[in-house]
Design a protein that fits this description.
single chain, 172 residues, mainly alpha
C-alpha cells in the first residue's frame, strides 16, 4: 500500500498543485479577458476618435479649400480696388493741380491789374479834392454866366423893342 499510498499522495499533491494552477490560470484568464475587454473598448474608442478626427480633417480641408478660394477672390478684389482708388486719387490730384494752376494764374493776373489800378486810384484820389474845387468853381461860373445870359437876353429884347419903336417912328 505504500506504493499506492505514495502514488495517491503524489496524485493528491499533484491534484492540489493542478487545482492551484487551474485557479491561477483561471484568475489569469479572467484578468486576460478583462484586459481583452478593456483593449477592445480602447480599440473601439480609438476607432471612433479616428473616425471623428478623419471627419473633422475632411471638413477642415473642405473649409480650408473654400477659405483659400475666398482669399484668392478677396485678394483679387483688393488689388483691383486699390488700383481703382489709386487711379481715382491720381485723377483727383491732377484735377486739383490744374485748379491750383488756374487759380494761381488768375491771382497773378489780378495782382498785376491791382498794382496797375492802385496807381490810377491813388492818382485819382489825390486829384479828387482839386477836381471837386474846380467843379464848384465851374458851377458858380456857369450859374453866373447863365444869369448874365438871361440878363443879356432881356436886354436884347428891350433893345429889340426899342429899335422896333424907333424904326416905326422913322419909317413912317
Amino acid at each position: 500500500m505504500n506504493v499506492w499510498e505514495a502514488e495517491r499522495k503524489a496524485f493528491i499533491e499533484e491534484r492540489g498543485l493542478l487545482s492551484e494552477k487551474v485557479s491561477q490560470l483561471s484568475a489569469s484568464v479572467d484578468q486576460m479577458a478583462a484586459a481583452k475587454a478593456s483593449v477592445e473598448t480602447d480599440r473601439d474608442f480609438f476607432r471612433e476618435q479616428y473616425a471623428r478626427a478623419s471627419g473633422f480633417v475632411s471638413s477642415v480641408r473642405a473649409e480650408n479649400a473654400e477659405l483659400e478660394e475666398r482669399v484668392k477672390i478677396a485678394e483679387g478684389q483688393a488689388g483691383e480696388g486699390v488700383a481703382k482708388i489709386k487711379q481715382l486719387f491720381e485723377t483727383n490730384v491732377k484735377a486739383l493741380q490744374d485748379d491750383i494752376h488756374r487759380w494761381k494764374s488768375l491771382a497773378e493776373m489780378l495782382q498785376e491789374k491791382d498794382s496797375r489800378t492802385n496807381d490810377e486810384v491813388r492818382t485819382r484820389a489825390a486829384q479828387t479834392t482839386e477836381l471837386e474845387s474846380l467843379c464848384r468853381t465851374l458851377l458858380r461860373d456857369n450859374n453866373s454866366l447863365e444869369s448874365d445870359l438871361r440878363k443879356l437876353g432881356r436886354a436884347l429884347q428891350r433893345v429889340s423893342v426899342q429899335r422896333n419903336k424907333l424904326s416905326s417912328k422913322f419909317c413912317r
